[in-house]
Design brief:
The chain is mainly alpha-helical. The chain folds into 2 domains: about 5-110, Orthogonal Bundle (Arc Repressor Mutant, subunit A), CATH 1.10.10; about 120-155. The chain is about 65% helix and about 5% strand. The protein is built from 6 helices and 2 strands. The chain has helices at about 10-30, 35-45, 55-60, 65-75, 100-120, 125-155; strands at about 80-85, 90-95. Strands 1-2 form a two-stranded antiparallel ribbon. Helix 2 (about 35-45) packs across helix 5 (about 100-120). The longest helix is centred in the last third of the chain and has 30 residues, at about 125-155. The chain is globular and about 55 Å long.
């Protein structure tokens, strides 16, 4: 494989697209000092108040070993609070602060701008097709990953 061939590989293209999407989000959310992962965690907490870190990492498809750092930063920013769990005091249940709720509302208002920046080169039909293909790619590879995980666990 020549060096120039790497630029046509799906993994490379997806990594670059991820960088582009992250840059668009970061630019639009710079007033809130928020990363895409932090925003996803805030949404998960909003949708399921009292959720714990392990469940958040599952919902947003983020590494369990580093989700704690993400949540620490959100807590330091005053966007979430952690309280001991009712059944297991070692588990910390998360909820949004009023400031966290406000930040979500403001970033959600910018979501269409972020999407437009990412998809600007595509026309409406291409955008729909792109989203459909990405969804299928993630869904089907996710199902494949679950099957492999179950197979490995059964050994």
């Amino acid at each position: 494989m020549k060096t120039s061939d790497i630029y046509k590989e799906p993994g490379h293209l997806i990594r670059r697209a991820h960088q582009m999407a992250t840059a668009a989000f970061t630019e639009e959310a710079k007033d809130f000092d928020l990363t895409p992962v932090q925003f996803a965690a805030l949404i998960a907490i909003r949708e399921q108040p009292g959720i714990d870190a392990t469940r958040i990492s599952d919902l947003i498809y983020f590494d369990r070993s580093t989700i704690g750092n993400v949540l620490d930063r959100l807590e330091k920013k005053g966007l979430v609070v952690r309280k001991p769990g009712v059944n297991d005091r070692r588990t910390k249940c998360l909820s949004l602060t009023p400031a966290g709720k406000t930040v979500i509302q403001k970033v959600v208002m910018r979501a269409p701008i972020i999407g437009e920046r990412i998809l600007a080169p595509l026309n409406q039909r291409e955008r729909q097709q792109f989203a459909k293909l990405l969804f299928r790619l993630l869904r089907d590879n996710g199902l494949r990953s679950q099957k492999i995980k179950k197979r490995l666990e059964s050994r």
